[in-house]
């Protein structure tokens, strides 16, 4: 309209009177018609927004591409995919990595609903989505229960979300995450933890990180530690090693986290309404966010990691151990024992199991 006014053009409408933009009357009519159109657009947008909000409050699906684990209607459970989702939540509770879960889903040909391979990022998106706990969200906030069946309970969802929110959790596979004992095995002489390395012949070894006091063949040490764990967890009293139930503590921490998030929302509302200044909101929100991070760390520590659960409950512990990823195995080692690499007997070339000291942790 502005261009037509500058060029004194005439707008010829297919259904309506021509608008001569070189005259005040033509410009007035064009302005009125434009204002009417904008009004209609805003009304339509408002109706759509209200309809979406109403659907959210009623717990109805939002539409769009279907969620993994559900059918195209957003309500019917796709059992083949739902099984993977439930297992993933349980695996994270037991110390599994997101990359390991993504790899397992890809190997099973359980691709995303867009037909793509899974990554640790897309798996994280699934595990932090409240819909799997049967909750409906609107504009990123939970507004109530959903009409579709939940695949996991709310306590499990909150626990996994806390684990994934901990800043210390890394998604990059470092050397320590690729092998069993780096950072866990200790040097007999100086007490430093051991790192993984390689000899000039390509053999993997554990080396004292601080002073290089000791170097031991890693495969032999790993095999011994794994055999000891499988034997211990195959005993009838293996259940005594499980952590006690911390659900009450977890619920208390969840309540604290919810309260902090509500206070953050109140700060945003106060700023929007002009009750609070930007400087005051920034100062208070920074303090609350730090407090929220501390609570989330406590929540993660409460549930993370009962790494022995999948092993203690297994009929075949050796097979269950083989099915775990490296991160889960490391969690089991850390929960059960402290491994110290001793100085081997002088002149002995074969592996001596007595050169690895295992001290069992108290249950």
From TrEMBL:
InterPro entries the UniProt entry points to: DNA_bind_recomb_sf, DNA_bind_recombinase_dom, Resolv_N, Resolvase-like_N_sf, SSR_resolvase
Resolvase/invertase-type recombinase catalytic domain residues: 1-59
UniProt-annotated stretches for the region Disordered: 41-68
Annotated Recombinase domain residues: 67-170
Positions in coiled-coil regions: none
Protein name from the UniProt record: Recombinase
Source organism of the structure: Nocardioides furvisabuli
